[in-house]
Amino acid sequence: MIELTCPIINVEPLIPHSESMVLIDRITDFGDDFLIAESEIRENHILIKNGKLEAFAGIEIMAQGIAAWSGCQDILANRPISLGYLLGTRKLYVHTKEIPISSKLQIQIKMSIQDATGFGVFDAKLIDLTENKIILEGALNVFSPREEK
C-alpha cells in the first residue's frame, strides 16, 4: 500500500516510469483536481543535453506532474496505476531558454477537463523556485485509456 500523506517522497510507484525517467522528487500537495510537486535538476538529469537543460524539455516534467496526480487518484480509487500519454499542448509559453543545473523546480497542475474516455486537459506551470520565476506554462492535452470491463 502506497502512503499518500504529503510530502510524498517515494514518487516512483505513482508514475509508470522507472529509475532515471522519474523526473519528480516529491509531491508536496494534491487534491481532486490539482497537484503540486518538486524536482531538483542535478548534473546527471536524463534530459540534459550538452550540459544544458532546454526549457522546452520541462514539458515532460509538467506531464509527470499529471501522471503523479493520476497515480494518486488511482491509489485512492483502489485501481492499478494507469498509463498516460502526453498528446500535445496549446498556448505553451516558454519564459526562458534554459533551466540551470541545480535549480529547484515546482510543478503545478490543475485539471481543466477530463472525460470518461481518459482524455484530459490540464493547466500546468513549471516554476524555478531558486530564481522565483515561471519557466513554462500552458495547457497540456493528455490521454489515459480506461480499461473496458
Automatic annotation (TrEMBL):
Pfam families: ApeP-like
Domain of life: Bacteria
Protein name in the entry: Putative hotdog family 3-hydroxylacyl-ACP dehydratase
Organism: Otariodibacter oris
Source lineage: Bacteria, Pseudomonadati, Pseudomonadota, Gammaproteobacteria, Pasteurellales
